[in-house]
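Quarterly update, task 2.4: 2-keto-3-deoxygluconate-bound model.
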Amino acid sequence: MPTRRQLLLGLPTLAAPRLAGAAGAAGVLRPRFGYGLADDSNQGRAARLFAEEVMRRTDGRIMVEVIGNAIFGTDAKLQAAAAEGKIEFSVTSTATLVEWIPEFSLLDAPFLFSNPAEADAVLDGPVGDQLRAKLRPRGLVGLVYWENGFRNLTTSVRPVRRLEDFQGLRIRVMQNPVALETFERLGTQARPLAFDKLYDALRDKEFDAQENPLANILQSRLYEVQKYLTLTRHVYSAWIVIASARWWDALPPADQKAIMEAAVVSRDFERADTRMRSAQALKDLKAAGLEINELSFSEANRISNRLNRVYAHIGPRVGLPLLVQTQAQLAEMRER
Ligand SMILES: O=C(O)C(=O)C[C@H](O)[C@H](O)CO
């Protein structure tokens, strides 16, 4: 059912599933790419580039309509809409897939990756491929991984300098069991909430704290409703570009190949864009008045030690072989 806002503003609504065969005038396909963040965001820029690349590689036979600002909702809603074929493409957090596919909780393991290169190697390698393959039974095709980034903590009540400073913080987390357990283990009162409700919830003091990558804190203006930023880098957040399997399977192989090539171009662009903007975001957040602190080495150690227990619950969800394969790949990279 279209929302009042969609109807009033004449915004696109989640229509009946379209089949790739259902080409419009002149045989042009117009699949929709829904995403949660603003047009002027790393998601928006990369989604538009993806659309351009698809148009170019299909000589205009496939014109992707890029629709942001959570018009179709955020992550969980976007995943369901794509699985039902109500939209053809989306980019969402892997974190909100865990309810459907527990193996994705591998990527929510605290301090799993130490730097973006490790994340790229695992996500673009056999482990990332195995996770993408698990989307099929859910009516989705996993194309590529984009970068949301390393997540950091912001608060409105006090800076977090020591493990004890987490105690009692009312923190918003993503709709993800590992994120919930992670912050409960740190002594906070953690509660999940969809991203498009976060700004208002912080403004209205429903929460004292939240955690997101620097680019997201800046582009979603969360600094307006928070005072302190602690550079915890406690987990790497990946985004995944997905397609409706029903729509995808009706495409000729040449178009599937063209779209996959466009997705890879958008991936490399998005990661470079996000990393460049993340570095700038730290300066902009400081200029915007956030009080920023790093954790001391000993406190970072105390926090990561406290979170080791989280891995005990991730193993059974992910399946030990995938966790062991990931840790072996990372150990091999770190020995180089
Ligand atoms: O929910 C969060 O904290 C996120 O990081 C969400 C993502 O940014 C989300 O994809 C926005 O649509």
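Highlight for this quarter: The pocket of 2-keto-3-deoxygluconate is lined by residues 36-37, 74-75, 92-93, 148, 174, 195, 212, 216, 237, 239 (CB under 6 Å).
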